[in-house]
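Dear colleagues,

For the upcoming journal club I promised to circulate an example of a predicted protein-ligand complex. I picked one with P-hydroxybenzoic acid because it came up in last month's discussion. The inputs are reproduced below in full, followed by the predicted structure.
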Amino acid sequence: MKTQVAIIGGGPSGLLLAQLLHRHNIESVVLERKTKDYVLSRIRAGVLEQGLVKLMEEAGCADRLHSEGYEHDGTLLSYGDEMFRIDFTEHTGTPVIVYGQTEVTRDLYAAREKAGGLIEFNVDDVVIHGADSDAPYVTYRVDGEDRRLDCDFIAGCDGFHGVSRQTIPLDVRREYEKVYPFGWLGILSETPPVNHELIYANSPRGFALCSMRNENLSRYYIQCSLSDKPEDWTDEAFWQELKRRIPADQAARLVTGPSIEKSIAPLRSFVTEPMRWGRLFLCGDAAHIVPPTGAKGLNTAASDVHYLYHGLTDYYARGSTEGIDRYSEKALARVWKAERFSWWFSSMMHRYPDQSEFDLKMQVADLEFLRSNKAAQKAMAENYVGLPY
Ligand code: APR
Ligand code: PHB
């Protein structure tokens, strides 16, 4: 087969790129290792920056997020029984949209299918060839049959565990990583959210987050030890622990119920440089991971897609290579800012096993400064709603 852009990975990055390129009559083929249902079964965060919302509009896939998503003009932070609000409208004039990443991915699949976009599922043994040549191609197997896809460019949208990043030679690649000494135990429950806005809680027993998907579908997280297993936590134990970590008045109004999903996610900050090697371009989790605290994972993947799709459309429309030549530099500039915000927010809101009394005082001072200083709140709001592309 021959196409213009071979996209490895059928997650939100790969699908958004394929749909945006399609809107500019640029052909692509998406190669996905799993099935569509498997990809849609993964529960992920759900706070969308305006930048991603605009890209979904450009891709012609924003109707449902506008009709079913929730505009949030602010968020709540608590430590102990203290709780204060970061007002996005006051500081940025821009809301975020609370809408599950799974729904974003579902909308993109629907758009690709409607457009007749080619997605190969259940692909195995994907190998990238000649990325540093003018004639790259990808080989893979489907149902035991060998396949070859010739292309002009390859977009590595295959996540942290994909092949694309590994294709960039070690002497070219530079990796930066921070692993946090705790995880997030998350549940989904068919209960009304405790608050119409998200609550990020720093408590002596650790972090907690109260989020939602809709009026009767809530998402809650508590910081847990990395040795924990989801089955170690009964629903009752989870609810009791959550109540201990959020302000008493919020705990009193918390509606509990059976969990319909329960999982533990590790926290990691990770970046690889460069995000381009020859005709191979990395997007999203294939190049960088953020701890979920700031909900920057999907949104930073979207800004990568923004820079790449503009670079590719300029190349095919005007033969200009400026956009693709500057892709890595532009994408990384925004990636590092999202990494810094996610690291800072995680450091301020979680309790560390080796935390000293002084470290704790620094956390409280950071929270106190944020609670009482408009400039600090503005900086937090600007980062949370999304820095410009
Ligand atoms: N061949 C083909 N597909 C692959 C391969 C491979 N070798 N390896 C992985 N994949 C697929 C995975 O099955 C997955 O569907 O690539 C896709 C990568 O999707 P994501 O991991 O969701 O990454 P991305 O699209 O960049 O989305 C980033 O996802 O993890 C969240 O927090 C993260 O929100 C961020 C978003
Ligand atoms: C979520 O709704 O799953 C969510 C929201 C905000 C975060 C992380 C996760 O920072």
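Two points we might discuss: The chain is about 40% helix and 30% strand. The pocket of adenosine-5-diphosphoribose (ligand 1) is lined by residues 8-14, 31-34, 39, 44, 101, 123, 126, 157-159, 161-163, 284-285, 297-298, 301 (CB under 6 Å).

See you all on Thursday,
B. R.
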